[in-house]
Amino acid sequence: MITKRIIPCLDMTEGKVVKGIQFVNFRDAGDPVILAKKYDKEGADELVFLDITATTENRNILLDVVKRTAKNVSIPFTVGGGIRSVEDMRLVLKNGADKVAVNTGAFNNPKLITDCANYFGRQCVVLSLDARQVKKGIWNVFINGGTTDTGISAVRWAKKAVALGAGEILLTSIDTDGMKNGFDIELTKIISKNVNVPIIASGGAGRIEDFYEVFKKGKADAALAASLFHFGELTIKQVKNYLRSKEIPVRI
Amino acid sequence: MIVIIDYGLGNLGSVKNTLDKLGVDSMISKSRKDIEKADALILPGVGSAKQGMKNLKERGLDKILINEIKKGKPFLGICLGMQLLFSESKEGSVRCLNIIKGKVKQFNGKSLKVPQIGWNTVEQKTENKLFKNIPKNSSFYFVNSYYCLPNDKSVIVGETEYEINYCSVLLKNNITATQFHPEKSGQIGLQFIKNWIKKI
Questions:
Q1: Residues A81-113: pLDDT tens digits?
Q2: Do the bridges between strand A168-173 and strand A125-135 make them parallel or antiparallel, or are there none, so unpaired?
Q3: Would an 8 Å CB–CB cutoff place B194 in contact with chain A?
Q4: Is residue B128 within 8 Å of residue B154, measured between CB atoms?
């Protein structure tokens, strides 16, 4: 049986892992390679690595960090941040990533998704979607590191991106990011219901029960968390043991 | 020396990293000379079947591969590298290498999400050295929208359930192939590759 995935996220800037609240107020969380190795050992199902300022600073992703991190892990590894072309994607994959997340670059140029999917296969293309609630029950897509409201509904963009070739969606709620009050269940559920690719829910994990809820009520296929794991508040093993006790299939 | 075949696709670096960890000599190459000299070959896979076949043909690697495999050189195909061994793939309706008779079909996606992404169990259909020190029903990492249907069922040594039971580990003489990514399946995956290397 396919299991639900627990994914630590390494948000990076200037070669360091950082963690913010609602996409601002970042604090240093340590060295990416050391963290990646630790999570691999502790039973993480995957890792996500996001160069969160690559787009806003208009530069390319830190390939050497990608390379060093990838050398030290034996689990799948998604890399995103500042991807604007098939060539960008090829370089990230060549340096050891298994999947590539596209966000602003794909929103501004949706053909990027199709081109990447045709070349590398759709399972390799992760749509990273940052959403914020603008009205009750309505979420918009935000780009440029969450700074720009596109005015486009998250559901609409998710469906379009999947039709274009995205094989998975990394869905981050800006509202719940770093707040530790639980994942955005409503947002996760509505996106999961509207597309037929796996959804990685992100933003808001604070208690062990939050993981259960996002799988059970939010219909997520994977749950991502950062500060909880980086700052040692919960271990991956604790989360998985808890989920198993609640009959959610996980790999232990 | 194990040659990881560079056909411009796939997570070549990950496979190389894994072999480095195991202390096995390997290189990433597309040269005929290297491939012919190699003790064993790995065809990794992340990509689409259509692009994969196109890239193999453009580099003249399709004929070299068929030749080397026919000669009995140990071969490991991973994910797309498994699917390309088959007669044809529904992904882009493309003729593949036709080394293993059968088809590659897409999950219908009626009850489950497509692609399958994540850790799934492999049922060991037979006792085999490939599974040495790998507990029954261990999980491996899968990323696939398509699955292989070999005509000759006796080549199936591992099966996985996703919509249906399908072939996730194939073994035929010198050919080993997996639908999952052993290079991404943690310690269990390392053990699998170690077992393959011991066999060759």
A1: 889 999 999 888 888 888 999 999 999 999 999
A2: parallel
A3: no
A4: no
pLDDT tens digit string along B126-169? 999 999 999 999 999 999 999 999 999 999 999 999 999 999 99
Catalytic positions of B: 79, 181, 183
| Second-level CATH architecture of B2-199 | 3-Layer(aba) Sandwich (3.40)
- For residue A242, the 8-state DSSP code is H
Q: Is A11 a catalytic residue?
A: yes
Nearest CA in chain A to B10: A120
Judge whether A47 and A77 are in contact, CB under 8 Å: yes
Please give the domain boundaries of chain A with CATH numbers for all domains: 5-245 (3.20.20.70)
Instruction: Count CB atoms within 10 A of the CB of residue A122.
Output: 24
Nearest to A119 among B51, B80, B113 (CB): B51
Contact B187 A118 (CB under 8 A): no
Residues from chain A that touch B112, judged by Cβ atoms under 8 A, are 2
User: Smallest CA–CA separation between A139 and chain B, in Å?
Assistant: 23
Q: What are the CA-CA distances from residue B115 to residues A44, B93, B120, B133, B147 (Å)? A: 20, 18, 13, 29, 11
B47 to A120: CB separation less than 8 angstroms, yes or no: yes
**Paired tokens of A138:** 């309505």
Which residue from B14, B141, B26 is spatially nearest to A95, judged by alpha carbons? B14
Interface A–B counts its CB contacts (< 8 A) at: 117
Q: Is the dihedral of CA B136, B140, B142, B147 positive or negative?
A: negative
User: Using CA atoms, how far apart are residues B30 and B63, in angstroms rounded to an integer?
Assistant: 13
What CA–CA distance (Å, rounded) separates B193 from B100? 21
How far apart, in whole angstroms, are the C-alpha atoms of residue A98 and residue A77?
5
Residue A247 near chain B (CB below 8 Å): no
d(CA A50, CA A66): 10
What interface predicted TM-score (ipTM) does this complex get? Answer: 0.88
